Amino acid sequence: MAAISLEQIKNESVDLEKIPIEEVFAQLKYTREGLSSTEGESRIQIFGPNKLEEKKESKFLKFLGFMWNPLSWVMEAAAVMAIALANGGGQPPDWQDFVGIVCLLVINSTISFIEENNAGNAAAALMAGLAPKTKVLRDGKWSEQEAAILVPGDIISIKLGDIIPADARLLEGDPLKVDQAALTGESLPVTRHPGQEVFSGSTCKQGEIEAVVIATGVHTFFGKAAHLVDNTNNVGHFQMVLKSIGNFCICSIAVGMLAEIIVMYPIQHRKYRDGIDNLLVLLIGGIPIAMPTVLSVTMAIGSHKLSQQGTLTLNKLSVDRNLIEVFIKGMDKEHVILLAARAARTENQDAIDAAIVGMLADPKEARAGITEVYFLPFNPNDKRTALTYIDNKDGTWHRASKGAPEQIIELCNMREDAQKKIHTMIEKFAERGLRSLGVARQEVPEKTKESAGAPWQFVGLLSVFDPPRHDSAETIRQALNLDVNVKMITGDQLAIAKETGRRLGMGTNMYPYATLLGLDKDSSVASMPVEELIEKADGFAGVFPEHEIVKKLQESKHICGMTGDGVNDAPALKKADIGIAVANATDAARGASDIVLTEPEFEKR
Length: 605
What we know:
Helices cover 41% and strands 17% of the residues. The protein is built from 22 helices and 22 strands. This is Cation-transporting P-type ATPase N-terminal domain-containing protein.
């Protein structure tokens, strides 16, 4: 296929979704090193920013809109009555009432317009700080950038928990599981293989891969769908409440005016002008004209305070070198660190990977002397990462893995006495508020990435320091004082959960996930219904998303709020009555939540 211009690509003269991936390279004029920053800026001028077009609203029409609601209609009717119907009985129109009513309308509308406009600016500034981010390859280097800068031809990294920022074609790698229910209505995640397309707005549920952007902004599948409903006017809950109050007031005043007319004229035989004056009093006095303004100002103040709360923060993890436990004779702590670093990402790192690789004298040591064959990314079910690699010295194949100790122990199929020794160390770490990370190694004599390999060896245990935030205990204390029952749901070991609960003052009556499945041998809870156990417990450890604790509480008629930050928290955040994504949450957690916090001090809310 002959190459075409970028303008033709913008006009969709070629179907980038269907042509072979090699032709996508040629048509988009990019390389495996990604675009240059200069080329990216040039393409933004052609394709526009990677976001949907925002409708520009006339300030004047917006101002007039505050005079166009049921409550204002009654006041406007009173103004007309003051100069039209009041002109009788030998008296001039009631200009004083007319001017007073008009001034009241203008003042209320002006205040509402100014405060709501300021609130909109504050909310826009806040949302700008929460703009979606993405890992993009520019100038041969990976960096985290706002998704709005993406253009066709950019190479992006997609991993577990990411919301895909643009329509893209997957490059080489393992299949990706993608949740695109919000776009296509499919209830289950779909599998996308290299070369296939993924859509903007869908969520990565499993896997990690690179992709090339083929469409951005209004040209994406999501953008086209949004354009079709662009003229749909959704009425918010606030407007619906105001409309209901206004309709009630109008109906009440109409009934009152009808009764007053019947009483004043046919029964009392009042003069025309006296009756009109009384009706004006009823019209003006019966309408809470300032109510929309008061509510608008109240919400505006909330937006101002919210916008001043700060920016996102980043929690730093650290590994204590002195507390590393080695379980292989002849191996030293430095080699355990090296194996853990082998099983970590050297680019696009999460907090744990960054902490482990940071322990090396030179981060390049993590891949020095080896050839990477296959990297297994983290997912909530396996709770570990692994690297299959070739030792360049002798050509032998090996694997290194790190992750949750229970998963690594299960992987190694260890003897009971060895497991007890490891669990003893885990509990000692937990008593000091330290999380544990298991490290294992394996030889791969078959020399293929799919092969089972030789038996795994548990080589060491790392202690990861991630203490509770300084404000957590006070937050929980305030919640308990408000009769809010706070429960901990964590994927960590039971010992760590209990120690954390003790430090936070929320209790230590916690159980392992086995109790939720009826597998706990503890006689005190074995006969207890799961619903009752969940209500009485302070928390659960080793929990997976499918255990559905929030759902069980809701079935027991409890109103549940859920806080979280990880992709494994997203299902519960979505299910909860109020889902709250805390500072630095993943895209998936933020997308599933009703509220997104911008700084860690939750008690200020």
